[in-house]
Structure formats: structure tokens, C-alpha cells
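re the bet — no i am not wrong, look at it urself. input seq straight from the record:
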Amino acid sequence: MAPRLKLFLPLILFVLLALFLFRGLSLDPNAMPSALIDRPFPAFDLPALQREGELGNDLLQGQVSLVNVWATWCISCRVEHPYLDKLAKAGVNIVGLNYKDDPQAARRWLQDLGDPYQLNILDSEGRLGLDLGVYGAPETYVVDAEGVIRYRHVGVVDERVWRGVLAPLYTELGGEYDAAALAGDL
């Protein structure tokens, strides 16, 4: 009986490998789960990009916020930047996390392209990004008024992502913005 089993062993291994690969291909390639969902935003004490002083977790207390990880070296960040400007003009609270970037280049970027951020955390060494599990930029976290991470989006925030995913969660958590102004600006 054992010699016959050896004949079918390659076929069995092939079927198992095919099932494994099929399962992997059926997963959403943009889904990047985070161990931090429903946990407090990691503690930090980092400089502000555009002013003197340190910023800490109290920055994320009291109102729903989007924390947007960005950098001047990030091509996709340039793509999403105009939409973030529209969201900010509609009243969405956005905090920037300038990730592993040159501070002077980042300040020029905001001066030239507009500044959608309430404040910018300067994470030159990437320590906070490491604590967040950042894969790269852009990434956007939805943080509730108690400073708890409720959602993580990897990639560009655009109209489709905002309307389909982020806006419903933002408003469900108590975040307010002028949807009519945003719709009229598109």
C-alpha cells in the first residue's frame, strides 16, 4: 500500500499548494490589518514640523481625527494631497505625521501645495511610524476622540476611499464636516 501512496504524493502536494495559492489570491491585496485597531494611539513626544515645541498624545484627544502619514519623497502622497486639502476645507480634522523626511523640504511642500493639517508631527527617524507599524506612505489612521485607533487605510485617500470607507466611520465616531461643501467642491 505504501508504494502506491508514493505515486500519488506529488499529486497530493500539488493540490495542497494550489489550494494555498488560491486562498492567498482571493484575499484583498490592499488589506493591511493592524494590531493597533481598537488600541490607544502609541505614546509619542516629538517635535512639531512648523512650530517650536513638542507634540504628544494630547493632540489626539477630544475630537475625531485622521492621522495621515506623508513625506515629500512619496509620489502617492503628492497624488492624495489635493484631496486632503478639500477634506480639510470641509472641516475634517487631519493631523499629519511627516515620516522619515527632510523638515525643510516638508515645510516647502506645504507652503507650495497647501497645508491640510491642523498640526504636523515630525518623525524624522521613523520611531512613531515603527510603533504604528507603518509600511510606507501614505497611510491614514482614523482615531476617535479618546485617542483610540479605529481604522487604518494603506494607500491614497481619494473620493472613493473617503465616501466608501472613511467618511461613514468618521461620522459614526462623532466627527463632523460639511459634506455639502465637499460635494460642491468636487
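see?? Residues 71 and 84 are 14 Å apart (CA to CA). told u. also The chain is about 40% helix and 20% strand. so pay up
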